[in-house]
Design goal:
Layout (H helix, E strand, L loop, with lengths): L8 E3 L12 H10 L3 H13 L4 E5 L2 H12 L1 H6 L1 E6 L2 H11 L1 H11 L3 H10 L1 H6 L1 H13 L6 E2 L2 E3 L1 H9 L3 H15 L3 E4 L3 H11 L5 E5 L11 H7 L6 E5 L9 H8 L5 E6 L4 H18 L1
Parallel strand pairs: 1-9, 2-3, 3-4, 3-5, 5-6, 6-7, 7-8, 8-9
Helix pairs in contact: 2-3, 5-6, 6-9, 9-11, 14-15
Length: 297
């Protein structure tokens, strides 16, 4: 199913996976709470009652459990749209440290049924990986997206580590493979997360990507807006891109009303993704976001 535009408000996954940029202890506490998938599904029901039915979902191991729960409930499956963020980079970093990069790739390919090709890899090593990189990347993307099969999928964002690495190495092919694989797999749009919005936008224009979907930090405090808030704000004046703003509350430093008024004042921002952990938190946060979005119109 093709999703042409970004949902204006997207439920974030950070609380569900124990991500807290200010407090590791609070992150661990939330991770323990949402270890039970039923509690994540309950928060999805709460969000839906507040007219939010879109969710950012990293390809964290818990994502497959959430996706399976949604598939079992027609009311959830028919209403919710997922915005996958891939890969779950922590897993790859940890396993790469343990096994080495080549062995990590081989393990992933084995899961995808590449057993017959592994002999070629053993004989030619990195030469094979380099020669057939498009097929390998497509296979790895398919593996990451497998949990979302048969669900409604919106834009699939490439993790900022890989996006920004492609920019650093000037590898537009990597970005193009992502877009192509997502389109072929889900008839959906491939987007890009980044920690340097101005650089990404300039490079995408040079590479010929039209009206890209971008996930980037946007907040009144300038937290995580690289290389500077002012340069990011200049980029956000453009109307030929669609930005989903993350980090809008600057990890809790900003209150929702002031935060969302600033974010939705940026012309390029079409959507926000924000995490909530309780029904009360959801009502306050989504209510403020919806009010700011209405004022913009």
């Amino acid at each position: 199913m093709t999703i042409g535009t970004l949902d204006p408000i997207v439920l974030g996954h950070n609380s569900f996976f124990g991500v807290n940029h200010l407090s590791r202890e609070q992150g661990r506490q939330r991770d323990a709470i949402f270890e039970d998938t039923a509690r994540i599904v309950d928060m999805m029901r709460t969000a839906a009652s507040l007219d939010v039915a879109a969710m950012m979902m990293s390809t964290h191991p818990r994502a497959a459990l959430v996706a399976a729960a949604v598939r079992r409930e027609p009311a959830l499956r028919e209403r919710w749209t997922f915005y996958p963020l891939l890969p779950y980079i922590t897993k790859y970093i940890r396993q790469s440290n343990e096994k080495g990069l080549v062995n990590l790739v081989l393990d992933q390919l084995k899961q995808a049924g590449w057993s017959q090709s592994l002999g070629m890899v053993a004989r030619s090593g990195l030469g094979f990986l380099t020669k057939d990189y498009r097929r390998i990347l497509t296979t790895l993307i398919d593996l990451e997206l497998a949990p979302f099969q048969s669900l409604r999928v919106g834009t699939v964002f490439l993790h900022d580590v890989l996006t920004d690495l492609a920019l650093a190495l000037d590898l537009p092919e990597l970005l193009a493979v992502h877009v192509e694989a997502v389109r072929n797999r889900f008839d959906a749009r491939g987007g890009f997360a980044t920690k340097n919005l101005p650089l990404l936008v300039n490079r995408l224009r040079a590479y010929g990507f039209e009206r890209p979907a971008i996930l980037a930090q946007v907040n009144k405090a300038g937290f995580g807006m690289n290389p500077s808030r002012s340069l990011c704000e200049q980029t956000l004046q453009r109307t030929d891109l669609e930005v989903m703003a993350m980090g809008t509350l600057a990890s809790g430093y900003l209150r929702p009303v002031e935060a969302f008024e600033y974010v939705f004042a940026q012309p390029a921002v079409q959507s926000i993704v924000v995490s909530v952990s309780t029904p009360e938190h959801a009502a306050e946060t989504f209510g403020a976001a919806q009010a700011a979005a209405r004022q913009r119109v």
